[in-house]
From TrEMBL:
InterPro entries: 4Fe4S_Fe_S_CS, F-box-like_dom_sf, F-box_dom, F-box_LRR-repeat, LRR_dom_sf. Coiled coil: none annotated. This is F-box domain-containing protein. Residues 31-72 form the F-box domain. It holds the Pfam family F-box-like. Signal peptide: none annotated. Residues 1-29 are annotated as: Disordered.
Length: 324
């Protein structure tokens, strides 16, 4: 409601003396100072979009090297970024790039990444998970260059790099900044860690040698208390995703007997404890894990549902019956 001392047709009060003339005020047509402060908190996609909004924002984005010291290229730009585009973006840091996260960028090559680090030898974080255009030999060469120039590289992410061997991993470990070397930290399984390019943990290197298959992959520890306390069990169930089946919800190991009793309507695995807590398909008595719960069909008010496989089977039977 309007104040009792004002009317709808009354003009606004005149500005106070000196108002709008301070250094922080924006000129007409120029971006507000608050928007300029927000640029440092934007993702790459939003930052590039702002640069196309007006000349003032374009100059602000292109002219501030501090905005580009930490560069993260993730979906949906991951599959579009090329060597030339990456070099153009990193050059905006003016040679002061500190952190480069390339999350699943298949068009970035060894030569392209090497050119970037040659112009930015102060890089301390290099995350390249699932960059299929990179090779283990090329990454060793890149990390060797950074070690010889500054020696400040402290964190790398190599999950999904093909043909990474124990020798490559040993060389990379020897080149990482010694101040970052820490005691081995446990890594527990979750779909986000395994599939969605995890970058949150503080370990210097994300991959390790799987004690079961001896391949260089993400190696998970078990969340089961018995496995953590009993040394032999801990060694037996510590391994990569391909060697040890793990519960999608709690991350504990699942033995073969338990695996046969906890069938799901989706492709993931659950332990018995987590399996019992979930609602089941009213036809086949199989649940969906929480990640695939959106696939439920024919939901009733009481929460009963039918899985997609049972629905498809019922539809096919109905079609066959109508054919006669």
């Amino acid at each position: 409601m309007l104040p009792t001392t004002a009317t709808a047709s009354a003009p606004p009060p005149p500005p106070a003396a000196g108002a709008g003339t301070g250094a922080s005020a924006s000129s007409p047509g120029e971006p507000h100072d608050a928007l300029l402060l927000a640029l440092g908190h934007m993702r790459l996609r939003d930052l590039l979009a702002c640069a196309r909004a007006c000349r003032g924002l374009r100059d602000a984005v292109a002219g501030d090297p501090l905005l580009w010291r930490r560069l993260t290229v993730g979906p949906p730009l991951s599959h579009r970024i090329t060597d030339e585009a990456l070099l153009a973006l990193t050059d905006r840091a003016g040679g002061r790039l500190r952190s480069l996260h390339l999350l699943g960028c298949p068009r970035v090559s060894d030569d392209g990444l090497l050119r970037v680090v040659q112009r930015n030898p102060d890089v301390t974080e290099l995350f390249v998970p699932r960059c299929s255009g990179l090779t283990a030999d090329g990454l060793v060469k890149i990390i060797q260059f950074l070690h010889e120039r500054k020696g400040n590289l402290s964190h790398v992410r190599l999950h999904g790099i093909c043909k990474m061997t124990n020798h490559h991993l040993d060389v990379i470990k020897s080149l990482i900044c010694r101040s970052s070397q820490q005691d081995a930290q446990a890594l527990y399984y979750s779909h986000r860690v395994h599939e969605v390019l995890n970058t949150d943990d503080s370990r210097p290197i994300d991959v390790d040698v799987c004690p079961l298959c001896r391949n260089v992959r993400l190696v998970f520890d078990c969340t089961r208390k018995d496995c953590r306390e009993v040394k032999d069990s801990w060694t037996r169930c510590r391994g990569c995703f391909f060697c040890v089946a793990r519960c999608e919800t709690c991350g504990r190991c699942i033995d073969l007997e338990e695996l046969g009793e906890t069938g799901l309507a989706c492709s993931d695995f659950l332990c018995m404890d987590c399996w019992l807590k979930l609602p089941k398909c009213c036809t086949c008595n199989r649940p969906y894990c929480e990640r695939h719960s959106n696939l439920k069909e024919k939901l009733s008010p009481s929460g009963q549902f039918t899985c997609q496989e049972c629905t498809a089977y019922a539809t096919s039977l109905e079609s066959l019956g109508n054919g006669y």
